[in-house]
Design brief:
The chain is of the alpha+beta class. The chain has 2 domains: 252 residues, Aminopeptidase (3-Layer(aba) Sandwich); 110 residues, Alpha-Beta Plaits (2-Layer Sandwich). 33% of the residues lie in helices and 26% in strands. The protein has 10 helices and 17 strands. Strands 1, 2, 3, 6, 7, 8, 14, 15 and 16 form a 9-stranded mixed beta sheet that branches. It has a 5-stranded antiparallel beta sheet with strand order 10-11-12-9-13. Helix 4 packs across helix 10 and helix 8 packs across helix 10. It is elongated and about 85 Å long.
Length: 371
């Protein structure tokens, strides 16, 4: 049923539109026009203005012709660098670049798959529930688009994201939430050789705090890390200031909150013990999610994968995706593998077989969601 030539040509068209993250304006206009031409009602929010990007998040809705839960499909429009002047070609069953840029299959393959499925729905007059397509801006900038989305525009009861590296059949059933912490420890300087007792070493305070907190792999759901530690001026000066960057992640939001408390408390307690002062700037990045197989969105994802002749491969991810944001907004969502390879490198390539199968999967999800 998939029109292989059409989806391939659209994919080739999309990857040749420059859309490095922050500079999504041109592709956003193209995508809005394509969605309008397919009969979707299209709107956007003002996320781009809020985050300093050219493009906004796009929301396109196709009213249902049959009963079933309103569903969401999503991919992101931006790419990493170097993504200007992509020159794609087809070789040995793959779409590849000339080796000077990334390809942009992450995530234009997802967009192409969604669009091909929607065209087939219209052409074949296939029944479908209400469908909302959300194409996000700024995903590669740290989920900036989805994190700053106007969530009041979301209409779906469950979501399916096409933005993971595994082959079609992989389903991300759990994704870690994240906090970032910037900690500033203020001690007191002194001559390290003449009167060290008059100083308060910010390095010592921070080191004591770090030694007391759980780090690395905490449990099957939770991790924590110290990513940067900066401070000091000279060999002979007791350091009066250090700055530490840290993070914690967990698939379970209660565990995420508990780990955050332990890390913040360790810095505060060490500072009090040494007579120092500490500032913790806590930045909430996104929520975690973890579904069991009885969750409706995961059940439908599993059944859809089986419909296209693949074996469901359920995975958890310690990294973030737009799926984390959608789940945080109350739209239960899973992330599908769509098969792109070596993303974020100039060796990135897209298997044609996976591109075609991803479009089949979108159609299968629609069928699975009919009542």
């Amino acid at each position: 049923m998939i029109n292989q030539e059409r989806i391939l040509q659209e994919f080739l068209e999309l990857v040749q539109i420059d859309s490095e993250t922050k500079f999504e304006g041109k592709i956003a206009e193209v995508l809005k026009q394509k969605l309008t031409d397919m009969g979707f009602s299209v709107e956007e929010d003002n996320a781009g203005e809020k985050i300093g990007h050219e493009g906004n998040n796009i929301f396109a809705t196709l009213e249902g012709t049959a009963k079933g839960p309103a569903i969401l499909f999503s991919s992101h429009m931006d790419t990493v660098v170097p993504g200007k002047g992509v020159k794609p070609s087809v070789k040995d069953g793959y779409v590849v670049t000339d080796g000077t840029t990334i390809l942009g299959a992450d995530d234009k393959a997802g967009i192409a798959a969604i669009f091909e499925a929607m065209r087939l729905l219209k052409e074949k007059n296939l029944p479908h529930p209400t469908i909302q397509i959300v194409i996000t801006t700024g995903e590669e900038s740290g989920l900036m688009g989805s994190r700053n989305m106007d969530a009041s525009k979301l209409k779906a009861e469950m979501g399916f994201i096409l933005d993971s590296t595994g082959k079609v059949g992989e389903i991300i059933k759990a994704g870690a939430g994240q906090y970032r912490i910037v900690t500033k420890v203020h001690g007191k300087s002194a001559h390290a050789g003449v009167a060290p007792e008059k100083g308060i070493s910010a390095i010592q305070v921070a080191s004591k705090a770090i030694s007391r907190m759980p780090l690395g792999r905490i449990d099957e759901d939770t991790t924590a890390n110290i990513g940067r530690f900066v401070g000091g001026q000279a060999y002979n000066i007791v350091t009066d200031y250090v700055e530490i960057w840290s993070e914690c992640r967990s698939l379970v939001n209660d565990k995420l909150e508990e780990q955050l408390k332990k890390m913040v408390a360790a810095f505060e307690e060490a500072a009090e013990e040494f007579g120092a002062r500490v500032e913790n700037e806590v930045m909430f990045m996104y929520s975690g999610y973890k579904f069991d197989e009885n969750t409706p969105v995961l059940q439908k994802a599993i059944n859809a994968v089986k419909r296209v002749g693949r074996t469901p491969d359920l995975q958890s991810s310690g990294g973030g995706s737009d799926g984390n944001a959608f789940n945080g907004y109350g739209v239960p969502s899973v992330n599908f593998g769509i098969g792109y390879e070596e993303i974020h490198t100039t060796n990135e390539r897209m298997p044609l077989e996976e591109l075609y199968k991803a479009a089949e999967l979108v159609l299968a999800v629609v069928e699975e969601c009919l009542e």
